[in-house]
Amino acid sequence: SEANDRSDGAASSRQGPAVLRPSTVELSHCLSRARKLKRSIREANDAESLSSPSAWRSNCLNAVSNCVGECLSIHSHYTAEELDSEDVNKEKSADLSVEVFQLIQLGLQSGPLRGGKPGYFKRCGSEVAGMALEFLQRTVPVGEEGDATPNNESRELFSEKQKDAILKWMADAKKAVEAGKGPSKSMVSRQQGKKRGKKKEKK
Questions:
Q1: Handedness of CA 108, 70, 91, 14 (dihedral sign)
Q2: SS3 for 46?
Q3: Which residues are CB-contacts of 158 (< 8 A; sequence separation ≥ 6)?
Q4: Is the pTM of this model over 0.90?
Q5: How many angstroms separate the CA atoms of 173 and 176, rounded?
Q6: CA separation (Å) from 193 to 48, 111, 130, 196?
Q7: Is the dihedral of CA 97, 109, 70, 133 positive or negative?
Q8: How do residues 23-80 score in pLDDT, each as one tens digit?
Q9: What does the DSSP assignment read for 93-156?
Q10: What whole-number distance in Å separates Cα of residue 59 and Cα of residue 90?
Q11: Distance of alpha carbon 179 from its chain centroid, rounded?
């Protein structure tokens, strides 16, 4: 019996670690990519390298759009039943919903919109608001009806509260575009990469 026990132990050691399901591997990849991109954008904001609208669109909005697109595609590939089949997948699905929403929000608080509330377009001018609107329409599958479900079996990545926030950002960006106003003086300085000077002390 000892020989059999040793044999069983050797067999189990050769099996190695448990193989993860494809869904778990892909959800983990999405989470990692979203988190890395968030760190990269924050670093770029701190370095003020996204101040100009063109740099913001090329190096931030486009990167966010590509990342979100992959996350949505992978998440929608699995049914709600598959995502709930293991606690790890259920947890990763919930985490991904938060990470992707925060990534979109960060995109709207970067570059020429840095320092403001997400979706605040009243001072940035119609050009920047137009870029934000195009980014949201291209990136997030949320229409007038708030439909973000690719098929009947998959679970929506965004919650109702998140979808409402995104729809409001779209509506506010559209209003700013239709207003056709230019950016405020402070926004022009920011978009040109100029830092605010210190106020002179009164003598």
A1: negative
A2: helix
A3: 97, 100, 101, 140, 142, 148, 166
A4: no
A5: 5
A6: 7, 10, 20, 10
A7: positive
A8: 899 999 999 999 999 999 999 999 899 999 999 999 999 999 999 999 999 998 888 8
A9: HHHHHHHHHHHHHHHTTSGGGTTSPTT--TTT-HHHHHHHHHHHHHH----TT----SSSSBPP
A10: 32
A11: 27
Instruction: Categorise residue 20: left if φ over 0, alpha if ψ from -120 to 50, beta otherwise.
Output: beta
Amino acid at the residue 32: S
- Pull the structure tokens for residue 104: 């979109």
Task: Tell me the C-alpha distance between 79 and 114, whole Å.
Answer: 37
The whole-angstrom separation of Cα 23 and Cα 90 is 11
Q: Give the tokens for residue 8.
A: 């069983």
101, 162 in Cβ contact below 8 A? yes
